[in-house]
User: What shape does this take?
Amino acid sequence: MDLNQTPRANRLHIGFYGRRNSGKSSLINAFTGQEISIVSDVPGTTTDPVYKAMEIKGLGPVTLIDTAGFDDVGDLGDSRVKKTEAAAQKTDIAVLLFSGLDMKEEIFWFDYFKKRQTPVIPVISRVDERSRRQEKLDLIELSEQVAAKTGRQPIRISAVQGKGIDELREALIQAMPDDAEKPSITGQLAKAGDTVMLVMPQDIQAPKGRLILPQVQTIRELLDKDCLVVCVTPAQLKNALTNLTKAPELIISDSQIFAEVSALKPADSRLTSFSVLFAGYKGDLQYYTESVSAISKLTEQSKVLIAECCTHAPLTEDIGRVKIPALLRKKIGSALKVDVLSGSDFPDDLSVYDLIIQCGACMFNRKYVMARVNQAKQQGVPMTNYGIVMAYFSGILEQIAL
Assistant: This one.
């Protein structure tokens, strides 16, 4: 992983939404100056959402999402709309295209994003095609109706002529969250001048010749904070601590070796893990911490969902598919039902589960993870995360720096 590259999960996600053949793909191509999406007069050309990571002046690293028309029909159309809904959960800023005076679908999606506090930029595309007098009058009426419904004057865009593109870019820049609102991986746990020790196993789960994404991102943030960063493997932890002139202010461990690191750490050093840090960075740390107590209430008739974000091939030592289920069954009983889902797979109905255990979610953006958390809260289902669960089973949850 190149330290200068921004992972897609950490980029600003900008989604383009509208009816079939409303001009979403043409707009994205005009906005980027690249042929990112296939353009056709045939409705439904875009099927699965297209994700494009790139750098855009004034916006920085972004992921652009071209979605299928939300008015798609039939069994296949329903499947495409579900994919669009999943993309909407990841969207930080929505560009919503209005096609005509029948705005029922568009207003539904406008309200959908508003409810989730996602900024929406209303757009009327293909204004170059409205050249005749009657269509010009329709455009005026459409603009007035959109402004009345959304509270914002829509941006009129012609992808063919390049009109409105600069105005759209400026609107996106204005809708970006302030730096102060952006979450931090280490938060208040590390400050300039602190010595931070990272204990990182280089085992079967670590890609050969590379560090895993949470480790890379944490190292980079600590360097940006002007911390002194010390990286060791578990085998060298004791020697590293002995060689330091003073104890590190913070030790960040892999969750799977919590007990081992806790036994060696100096009394003055705080301890946490990459997964616990990402619980706060990507999700709801308080809800995760409160929910872990649900483990004590599980029985062999209970059902647990393990929610992975990665789609990697399962490993023999996999924490989500092997280690956590084994710990749960050892405590609760072998008949405990544990489902494992990966990637974007996540049930609409969570009520069948007594507990959800989410991974660190380094591959998803915070917007999407919080959509999962809010869904669990609304359905009254406890939800926690790998790191919190491992601290719980290690008997050191109360000692972990949160």
